[in-house]
Amino acid sequence: MAVARSLRRTNPITIALAGLLAVGFLIFIFSSPSTAPINVPGARQLLKSKEAASHALSPPSLPFLKSNLKAGEEAPPPPVVHYHMNNVTTTADPIANRESILILTPLARFYQEYWDNLLALTYPHELISLGFIVPKGREGNAATAQLQERIKKTQAGTNKKRFASITILRQDEEPPLQSQAESERHAMSAQKERRAAMSRARNALLFTTLGPTTSWVLWLDSDIIETPPSLIQDLASYDKPIIVPNCFQRYYNKDKEAMDVRPYDFNSWIDSPTAQNLAAKMGPDDILLEGYAEIATYRSLMAYMADPRGDPKQIVSLDGVGGTALLVKADVHRDGAMFPAFPFYHLIETEGFAKMGKRLGWGSWGLPNYFVYHYNE
Amino acid sequence: MWKRQELYHHPYVRVTCKARVPSRQYIPPTISFIALRGRDVIGTPVVQLSSGLAPRGPFHASGELHPTSSSLFQVSTSWMLPLHASAAPKSKMNRHAYSNGHTGAYPLGGRGSFSIQPHKFQPRSQPALRRRRQLLIRLALVGSLLFAGVLLFFPSLRAAALPALSLGLFAGHEELQLETVRYYDLSNVQGTARGWEREERILLCAPLRDAAPHLPMFFSHLRNLTYPHHLIDLAFLIGDSKDNTLTLLSDLLAELQVDEQPGMAFGEISVLEKDFGQKVNQDVESRHGFAAQASRRKSMAQARNWLLSAALRPTHSWVYWRDVDVETAPFTILEDLMRHNKDVIVPNVWRPLPDWLGGEQPYDLNSWQESETALALADTLDEDAVIVEGYAEYATWRPHLAYLRDPYGDPDMEMEIDGVGGVSILAKAKVFRSGVHFPAFSFEKHAETEGFGKMAKRMKFSVVGLPHYTIWHLYEPSVDDIRHMEEMENERKAREAEEKAKQERLEKIQSQFDDTQGQWEKDRSDIESIKKKAQEEEEAVAEAKRQATAQQIAEKQAQDEAAYKAQKAQQVAGGKPVVGKQAAAGAAAGAGAAAAADAKVHDESGSKPRVEAKDGKGHIIDADDIPVVGGGRKTPKEDTL
């Protein structure tokens, strides 16, 4: 213990203070330039996937730092933010590549089961951004209130499994139908208008929340209440530009006196010559709908390709897709593929989307034996 | 002096000490409780001596403590004065003496560690912390060095480590500082005619590619915009640039944001870097070639869509598309276009031209009204064909916004259009929100901005052009123009060379003329001298005649005397002067004719170059006045960008 006499005689408090000072100097010296100038005006930044933005004016798919400005203090001008979109990948292994995903939901009604299912997703939540669009009106208000209540709990700062960011939009136009009852909703005459409004809602949600760092977009309807927890990884593993699982519905089968499943979404199909002939004879503003007895299209519906004992990895190429659950590479949307609110090749909304994707060179695929379940009203 | 007594470990303690006074001690002891660990031990407990002090007699002391559950403290008894050693009471004094009713809580019953032996001075026993001070200091030094080293080599850890050290007390955890939830009502961002009053945000989009030469001009336009800058968000997409567009843009933007002038800084600024791997060159010729149009328009559309989808936010009421190569535009263009309150609106786009091309020219031919011919044409084309305007290959007979311009027309006049040009488009954000975009495929036989106009029309949005509100696109000479300008330049040079040659010739001739003048003078002087000589000769002859006459007279006089002889002599002399006179006259006439002939020669050689010079000058003037070529040149057809 040969310690210098001076050191032995020094009061330990002095040494402690000196140590503190030394640490302070070290911090000063090593403080990296990337963190320091966050609020320096004119600073240049590079935002990568799931980093927090330093200013409130930032892509809604990213969280941002709260500004702790005092009253009367003027905020510095926003920084110049660079995004290397060449580095935004969409691969079969999204978790390993830290690919961020945007889950978009047109929220007509709030179902607790939907929210629970969402929270149960095993994809890293810090890579998930959520986007909701809620229609105007009383039902929308109720849904928003419920949603915000759940969000408050989920997004608390202490929650390790909170989502990267959540955006809620209130739609600017009234929904065309006052009631959303199931029977009324599917009345064929109302379909075109309803789905056009739905398209506009989807597009508004998509184009305002899609950020420069987003790799995937998952469309998930608010009435999808049961999916495999690994939904995102499973769908992404096929590395297809547009991929859709089979949407079924659980119901009480009175004949069997037991719970059973039945096909729900008929918008995923492979085109048929009959349908094409029908379309050729139609006027430019007519649309060809699926799942109605009035028009027999003889398209091959994915809903009827399901085989409960079949290979869940079976994959088929589709010409129309449904939007209840739909995984899309963000590049497809960025190229311009959207949900046409007008008859596009006599197709509308998600079916028109698949067609537009095809026109842009992106194919659609379906998984007949991989199921998600729709709420039963 | 201090004797370690006992360590107690209990939440609430009432301690009673019982000990014996040393034999020679008369001073009351000091009893203290020293906390070894834990914060809440009440400093010095109230110590009461419950019995009087007598040498070697027993005494009691008690005190109350409120330690925390983890406190560890010791009870000490001390006397002020040195005492001699006395081992005798030791065994008896080693009784622990305390009680607070929680007997079971004390693990030290019967250990007999309570001992008071203040018989002599003893060095204060060192607590562990003090005893191992050097070790601790060394450990701390090594630790901080390691820490510094880690921070030095792993900069990524700094962000995590530093706030915890420096601001940890004030800032809290970073997670708590992040805002993750946003709520927007889209009915607030519909876009109105007086957006600047309602603080409506505009997204200004500019796709860039090899645009470095135009950036300074573009930024001067940005600075001049009168719409409140903080309400304008800028978004740039840089793709496949081979020049320094990116660095230049970044520098200019940073400069713009720190400008000291208040209100100069813009809102959110996004620079998106994305290479699409386009093959088409960006120079004018390859950009505007017909064959390249369809694929070029599609990739341009793709770039525009990427830019828009990444930059459009729920806060935007308007979207303004602006090319960087606009040379002149009103500062109030945003307000001017917004005032019309249309869903999609474009101004007229012209470009200035050099005088020899006619001064100005319609530039953007993509803003047009649909025509029956074009619709019929569209039906004949296959699914992937793209009609591009301004090429002879597709004669569409559409009314173009550009050709309807009247420089003195009402700038507020509106015109319904179907296709729009992309140089300067102001659109309500709700148009883009509803899904209208720049088709990168053939949408109703159109792509990019024309397809955008078509799609907006399809979705029942109003699409309007302003024929008499003009902005001016930069004039970039096409390859033809450049060639032509080279020709003109060569011509000019040739003309200058010719002029110079003529000048030289003129000078030469001038100098030659001066020579002949001299010659003439010389000749004249020669002639004059000859004339003089002739005169002299004449005079001499005359003199001689006179002399001869005189001689004759003299001879006559002499011959008067001799009449025969004199008569004969007079006959000879009379013929002689006649001959001499004739010769002199002939000589003079010859000299005059020669001089006249000489002068005529001079006149001819002098007047001819003068005529030539006049001709030359006239030619130069004519060359300036008469357009050489290109005055009636067919103006090249161009489309935007």
Automatic annotation (TrEMBL), chain A:
Enzyme class: transferase
Keywords: Glycosyltransferase, Transferase
Protein EC: 2.4.1.232
Protein name, per record: Golgi mannosyltransferase complex subunit
UniProtKB/TrEMBL annotation, chain B:
UniProt superkingdom: Eukaryota
Protein name: Mannan polymerase II complex anp1 subunit
Annotated organism of origin: Zalaria obscura
Gene assigned in the entry: ANP1
